[in-house]
Amino acid sequence: MTWSSISSCDHCGGTWRETSEALICRSCGKTIQTVTDWVKLDTEPLLPDRPAYKGQIGEPSAEYMRVFRSHYRPIMDAAPLDRSELRVLELGAGLGRTTQAFVREYAPALYIASEPFSSLAVQLRQSLNAWDYRWPKGVAANYNANCAPLLRPGAVNVILGNSVLHHILDYECGLEHWREVLDTPGIMIFGEPIKEGWVYWTSLVLAVLQAWRGGTVELAQKSADTLERHSRIMRERIANHDNRSYLAGLDDKHMFSPLKMMALADRLHMSLSVHKLSRDVLQLMRIRLERIGVAETDARTVLDYLREIVPVGIQDTAMSDFAAMFVFRKV
């Protein structure tokens, strides 16, 4: 499969003529140096180049390779796809940690690592070259995932997004676009915030604050204020989960309920499976307390209290984690 057979020029919609080092539009003459440049997968103006998703854009690492093998490999290995013909579109590839893990694990026939920020797309191009995933197997792309991609129907058979979908205001429209470019059979895999986990966590924070007010739990005033502020933010987000004007002003916009995602999959005529991540619930809570700025001694106090009130069996439920893997299948 050649790039000219699956993609169109972002400037005029024309077809590409390929040389060993460049793509040249047959209609407008636009030229892309494929060894050094990224392609553009939409016709929108470039976004302001200031990615600000703290903690969500990470470098490739051995630790992340272990995460990939734990979270993604069971899904990929169960997919009814020809391993020699994997054609992948990654959304929000960032600095390429999922990119590197996937190309090293599966050596796909085509890997399109896309980013809405052009500075990251430049780094992706350099990284793909360094990982021996040069054009035409490895394609770095600038793509605003709020738009339909300039790819032909059936261009890819795997679509990946790690902590991406919840940033997209019209993610339902996005899923419709991506379904069109997904071949049959094909899968879309998204690692995203799960609403049930965040609702449960917010309820626990409120319980801790109630215990603090009643004198059962001792916390420094600063830590209590931090928890109050965090619970207020979370309750506001949960209450406004369908308020577009509110969500438009946030970086982290959505939390996903498996029930809503099942209904969406039905509408798209796709099947859906939801994969729970095997992470310790109290360890995740400790990390969350650290990230919102609760003092270490007070965090230990909170965790001791949570050990007393967290229900038996919570580890085996959807509420035990802040994220899940949502897998849409087109068959």
Name the overall outline: elongated
Radius of gyration based on Cα positions: 22 Å
Class inferred from helices and paired strands:
alpha/beta
Helix content: 25-40%
The CATH architecture of the largest domain would be 3-Layer(aba) Sandwich
**Which oligomerization state do the chains in this entry correspond to?**
single chain
Q: What about the largest sheet?
A: 8 strands, mixed
Tally of alpha and pi helices:
12
Amount of beta strand: 15-25%
Overall structural domain count: 2
Mean pLDDT comes to 94
The CATH homologous superfamily of the largest domain is called: Vaccinia Virus protein VP39
CATH class descriptor name of the largest domain: Alpha Beta
Instruction: Please state how the strands of the largest beta sheet are arranged side by side.
Output: 4-7-6-5-8-9-11-10
Number of E-state strands: 11
The SSE order reads HEEEEHHEHEHEEHEHHHHEHHE
Distance between the termini: 21 Å
At CATH level 3, the topology of the largest domain is: Rossmann fold
The stretches of 5 or more residues where confidence is low (pLDDT under 50) are: none
